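Reviewers of the previous submission asked for a worked example of the structure-prediction workflow described in the proposal, so we include one complete record here. The input consisted solely of the amino acid sequence. No template or homolog information was supplied to the procedure at any stage.
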Amino acid sequence: MDWKPEKPPTAKEIAAKFRGDIADGLYGPGARLPGAQGLAKALGVALMTVQSAYKQLAEDGLVEGRRGSGTYVIDPAKGEPTAQQAAAGLRDLQEQLKHVTSQFSELRERVERLEAGHSGRADENQ
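From that input alone, the workflow returned the following structure tokens.
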């Protein structure tokens, strides 16, 4: 793995990175993710951080842990969406959520400015 973030990543950031890699096909069905201990050392994070990231991916239905063997991208049964399709859908949903959050912040700022303007006018009328 050649990912070298500027600062030690959080479990959420690690999960997002692998979600993207799975969506992009870098890890296909049945592919083994990097070992948790080696990845933790390479990223400068605690082992528990990587384990938490892998748990998030498992909860998303993208990977499965095999005791003593590692963490693997799920090879879907016939008719089931692939991990790559699921990861792409999750990534799209994440992008949409960022956009909505940004719009909400802008709306909140506008409301605050409007309220500040109204309270100033109310003071002038008294």
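The helical segments are 11-23, 36-43, 47-59, 83-125. We consider this example representative of the routine output the project will generate in years two and three.
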